[in-house]
């Protein structure tokens, strides 16, 4: 793995800290949005065209946030032949809270027990859909700090997005993403280039402690998302301009300087509008835009508008969506595979978009490119940052391995089982009635789950949850349960070979949006 480079390669900072490996998990069943339109009695295209959604994945009562995260972590470790003692930090970003005290991270630690590794920093991080990004930043900061002991950091973002019956329900989804973080990464963070905006608002929140459903102010949530995007882009541009000026360049930063852009995706149509919004920002900040030829052709009528007055201006939206259509096709559209086919995963959403982008390209096509990443969580918190893809795309390189590991995404999506809207509604009703119960045994079939999926076996009378794993090979018996006690009975297969430790480096400086 890239993280095992010699210390002589690292310099005063760990070199190219970022994402080394990624793994995705999404449910094995979905509902078709066209069929859901018909079942809900809404106009044709309301969900598929208006929201840009084709399919929506969902979980039965066999899955919860713990099982999703157990599945994605073990899958990443197995597919990359990693030993559990090579991980020194594990942090979970989620807003799917099933316990107000015990973290998801502590549940995942059962996977580490056979290795004997309990020296693992990090805990859960929560703020709507931003928790995964906060956890990722914490992991990167740990590797670049005096606290780093030379091992990998592991970041998990997972959620189950469900809504009460109504207009927001089609914007649901579920899934988890695990990311291995360390130096010499194929997706390296561009140091110092983060534009963040934090502000108080009640746009989407979950005050009911016994319900999975949020309270949503749809119009306000869209305004918060777009205003955060404006502010983050402005801060990011100021920071990169300052860097360029220190290097002697007076160039202006624009969307052209991103090779790709991925966004938190509550629904795909909002992402397309968001790219148009960034073009509006470029247009308004340009000292003398050419409205006769080029991308700003015919936009002179919008020269004097104020961005804060245009969140719901259909004329502005239509004009800039048309002007940015080519940019969307080239820079963003391919990132919406998971979002379009599985729905909003909350904290993993933007990282599902990143994985979708990588999965549909060869390593040579993406090598050396800059990827802009916009993360948003209601309440609200947002950051725009950028990743630089390594130039090394040789066979067996870190980038080649990353691209290869994600190349099966479409095949996995196509292997899911379609269920009727009636069955989907029954599942939602069952979750609503049982997700908080003690002394509960799930009713849904285990056979419908993907091989290798962790699932809930029972909740005892003290709300303690027990899990088992569906075998990777259907000819094998089910793996023993992980029990609620401090000693797990599930056997973790030993990796093919133990990973060498990463050498330590010296310290250095540093609908609704549905959250």
UniProtKB/TrEMBL annotation:
Region entry Disordered: which residue ranges?
470-515
Q: Which GO terms describe its molecular function?
A: hydroxymethylglutaryl-CoA synthase activity
What SUPFAM superfamilies does this protein map onto? Thiolase-like
Q: In which pathway does it act?
A: Metabolic intermediate biosynthesis; (R)-mevalonate biosynthesis; (R)-mevalonate from acetyl-CoA: step 2/3
Query: What does this gene product do?
Result: Catalyzes the condensation of acetyl-CoA with acetoacetyl-CoA to form HMG-CoA.
One of its Pfam families is HMG_CoA_synt_C
Q: Which CDD domains match?
A: init_cond_enzymes
Q: Which domain of life is it from?
A: Eukaryota
Write down the top EC class of this protein.
Answer: transferase
Record-linked PANTHER family: 3-HYDROXY-3-METHYLGLUTARYL COENZYME A SYNTHASE (PTHR43323), HYDROXYMETHYLGLUTARYL-COA SYNTHASE (PTHR43323:SF2)
Q: Which family does it belong to?
A: Belongs to the thiolase-like superfamily. HMG-CoA synthase family.
What positions does the domain Hydroxymethylglutaryl-coenzyme A synthase N-terminal occupy? 13-186
| Identification of the protein by name | Hydroxymethylglutaryl-CoA synthase
GO terms under biological process: acetyl-CoA metabolic process; cholesterol biosynthetic process; embryonic viscerocranium morphogenesis; erythrocyte development; farnesyl diphosphate biosynthetic process, mevalonate pathway; neural crest cell differentiation; oligodendrocyte development
